[in-house]
Each structure stands twice: as C-alpha cells, then as structure tokens.
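Example S7 (structure tokens).
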C-alpha cells in the first residue's frame, strides 16, 4: 500500500474524548483555523465562520445552555446520539465538549445548501492539522441539534456568531490525555468500477 505523511496522518487521526487542562498554543490555534479555511467549498463560497472559544466562563456557559436546552428538547428522530445527549443532560455531569480547553464552532450563512458539507470538510482539515501537530480533536454535533434554541443563540450572538447563521458543528481541541483506539474499518464500503 502507498505510504506517505498525509496518508499516515489520515489513518492515525482519532476522536479524542479526554483532554489535558493545558491550553493549546496560539500558534497551534492559528494553524488549525488556517487549515480549516483552506478546505474546498461549494462554488468557492467560503461563507463559513470559525469561532474559537477558549474563555473558561464562556465554555461553561455554553455547556450550561446546552444542558438546559437538551432537557427541554424533543429529539426529532431516534438517532442514538440525540437520545444519549438528552439522557446526559439530566445529569449534573453533562459535559458535551469533554472539558477540552478549546472549542471551535463552525457556522455558515443561512439558506445555503452546502453549509454542512463545507463546514464538515473544513473541520476534517482542522482535525488532520491537529493530528499533525500532536493535538487531539473531536467532532461535536450537539450545537447543531440545538442551533435554534433561543437562549443558546443569544449567547452565541454575544460571542460574535450572527443570529442568522446555521450552526453546523463544533470541534473540541486540546492536548490528548487519553488515546482512543481505532475502530476497525467495515467491509463492503468500497466499490471500484473499471
Ligand atoms: C457527523 C459526526 C458527528 C459526530 N458527533 C459526535 C459527538 O457529538 N460527540 C462525539 O464524541 N463524537 C462525535 N463524532 C465522532 C465519531 O463518534 C467518531 O468519528 C467515530 O466514532 C469514529 O472514531 P474516530 O474518529 O476515532 O475514527 C461525530 C462524527 C461525525 C462525523
């Protein structure tokens, strides 16, 4: 099999769910955000916004607003992550971002069909950049599910995210405290037609 640095980085990246308390360096944050902005986007739209939150009070406030939001939320389908997020919000220990020191929120302009695709590609860039720098990261869906929660949106607006933006996803980032093992690849996911 062909090997090179990029392919090795893609294979080695895992979702981190236990982070060290220490904040990442500003240069590292800058490199991650820059990598995100180099992702492809539909029609070269580049209409995303990446909001990096490192302020501890702000992180705690977002977590608290999500917790309250999930308590009152009725999942719109039976996706297991939604059911477990709602169950987790009943507990004092609710912690959707795994105490990561940095949370990066990816949002995009409203009524844009490629909003999620563009932001997901950008976040994968960011995750691979994190891996290349020895940082851990994890895709987080909860802010997307509660993207229309009025209290949450008001607070995100205070943090600089336009009210009309679609919250696509967020990413937890930090130094790894516990390595995650690699889930085996499933069979039958590749189809080559020659
Ligand atoms: C669309 C999407 C949503 C995800 N949401 C979450 C999430 O909310 N919380 C979480 O801990 N991991 C989340 N993940 C990470 C997946 O659980 C993870 O990628 C998967 O288990 C494979 O593990 P790996 O990333 O280590 O290869 C999400 C991943 C994707 C692509």
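Recovered sequence:
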């Amino acid at each position: 099999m062909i090997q090179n640095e990029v392919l090795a980085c893609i294979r080695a990246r895992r979702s981190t769910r236990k982070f060290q308390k220490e904040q990442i360096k500003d240069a590292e944050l800058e490199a991650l955000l820059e990598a995100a902005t180099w992702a492809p986007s539909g029609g070269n739209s580049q209409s995303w916004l990446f909001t990096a939150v490192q302020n501890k009070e702000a992180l705690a406030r977002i977590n608290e607003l999500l917790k309250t939001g999930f308590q009152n939320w009725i999942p719109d389908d039976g996706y297991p992550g939604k059911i477990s997020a709602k169950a987790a919000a009943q507990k004092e220990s609710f912690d959707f971002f795994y105490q990561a020191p940095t949370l990066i929120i990816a949002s995009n302009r409203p009524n844009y069909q490629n909003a999620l695709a563009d932001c997901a590609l950008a976040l994968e860039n960011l995750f691979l950049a994190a891996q290349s720098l020895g940082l851990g990261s994890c895709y987080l869906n909860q802010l997307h599910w509660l993207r229309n929660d009025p209290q949450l949106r008001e607070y995100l607006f205070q943090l600089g995210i336009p009210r009309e933006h679609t919250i696509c996803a967020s990413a937890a980032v930090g130094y790894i405290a516990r390595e995650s093992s690699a889930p085996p690849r499933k069979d039958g996911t590749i189809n080559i037609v020659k």
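Notes on this example. Helices lie at 5-12, 26-37, 56-71, 80-88, 115-132, 142-145, 150-158.
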